[in-house]
Amino acid sequence: MSKTIVNIIDKSNPLPAYLFTKEYYEEGDELLFISTEEEAGCIQLLTKQLEVDETLVKSIIVKRYEDKFLYERICRTIKGELIPNKKYYLNLAGGNRYMTLSVQHVFEEFDTLFFYTQTRENLIVKTIFDHSIYDDDDEVYPIKHRMNLKEYFGLYGLESDVDQPRQMVQETTFSQHFFTLFSQNLLGQGDYQVMDILREKYRGWKYLIISEVENPHKEYMTPIPNLGKFLNYIGFVPERKGSLQGNEIDYLTGGWFEEYVYALIKNVLQPDDIAMGVHISNGVIKHNNELDVCFMKANKLFVIECKTGVASESYFNEIVYKVCALKEVLLGTSNSYIFSLKKDHKGSWKKTAKYMGITFCDWLNLTKPELMKNILKSMDKIAKEN
Fold first, then answer.
1. If pLDDT is split at 50, 70 and 90, which confidence band does 38 have?
2. Is 38 within 8 Å of 11 (Cβ atoms)?
């Protein structure tokens, strides 16, 4: 027998409605969304993401009366749209408390099963509203559905290139090797100069010829006399002998650290979905909208900004503001981190990041196995996989 799945729209947090529907929707079911006028724009987005027949989707829009939401008017509006002999599955997670109380009151007069979707714990609680509070008749079900990155971004109205993720430039073992060289001070001043010039002058180039860069004859080229020596020292073998491709330049100037973090997360946390270098947009942020490493675990989004070093406090603040801006685009639902090989001796940068809702992992966290293990365990705890 078909049923009608009912959700109260919450534009700022569409996740409960989406996951509840993914768990209980069956072919032939109808969907009913209850919303204020201000929140109604989310209905079309949810319908698109759920990939259901739009003819089976209905909505009840609650309007203000003299700029107020009045309980009795809300109840009358909803009740007038319901059908006596229909079976309703009502998810009470969504909207403000005033709306939820109104919806609950009306549906108690109909053939309704009541649920509450707890996205934080990945659980759905089935509840019977009666006069007894001692019969323990609540039932708890784990949410089985696991979202991928594309699914999550789409739910929040974000465009992304997650379908074309950046590929690994080197094997994980080499990124681990590079991490050891960088973090244990096994690189000399000349090596850092090579990487700095590559980053400042050649990042964005499609390719460069190593011999030409070592001894350039063109005025617009900045010389890097020790480029070949640097590559030999770190053991980097270019894909094409005698030249560096654009993705290899990116790798040598910081991309290796993103690949290191990507592999670490993938191997230890085993996320449901993970990607590097994903660009997102919702029409608000026009630049700096790249997610270095992002992943989904148990329907939670994690975003990591990767920086090999941070030269100054002002530059660190720029990074924090960028991450905060991305959090705002993601409606505050992401768990945000900055991984950097900068040494935060006084802990002041950690405090700044924490104040902005961001976890900062510095050189000490990244190089001490026990500390890194604690960071990863805390991520796993946030996900609360069931």
1. confident
2. yes
